[in-house]
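Hi everyone,

Forwarding the result from last night's run.
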Amino acid sequence: MEPRISIVTIAVDDLDRMAAFYVAMGLKRHEGITDGVAFFQMGGVILGLFGRPAAEADSGLKFGDGIPRVYLAYNTRTREEVGKVLAAAQAAGGRIVKAAQKAFWGGWYGYFADPEGNLWEVAHNPDFPIAEDGTISLPPEA
């Protein structure tokens, strides 16, 4: 696992309201990917807003009761690396929450929780390029 965070995701109750808030704060919403999610490029990291019910279905966890609604994502350079990072997390004392599998958006992903229950998504999305220095970018808008 390279030392970087790709995406900080917030599971939100009202996606439109929260996206409007961040736009009003001066962030530019990526207009090419808007179905059930809002993405904002923030330097070399992406802020993602994901509707809470969809985030719960995607992760297999119900947020609240000790499971925070803010979680981190580590994007990999290859599909195979997803399984390797999940295995490393488990070997280090973490827990696999969702095994590596095909994502509804076409990539490959899984989830792990660290020893204190903090949630990480590990994903390979070939549409989100990762530079040599580890910074990630949203794809060009159509």
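Residues 129 and 137 are 6 Å apart (CA to CA).

Cheers,
N.
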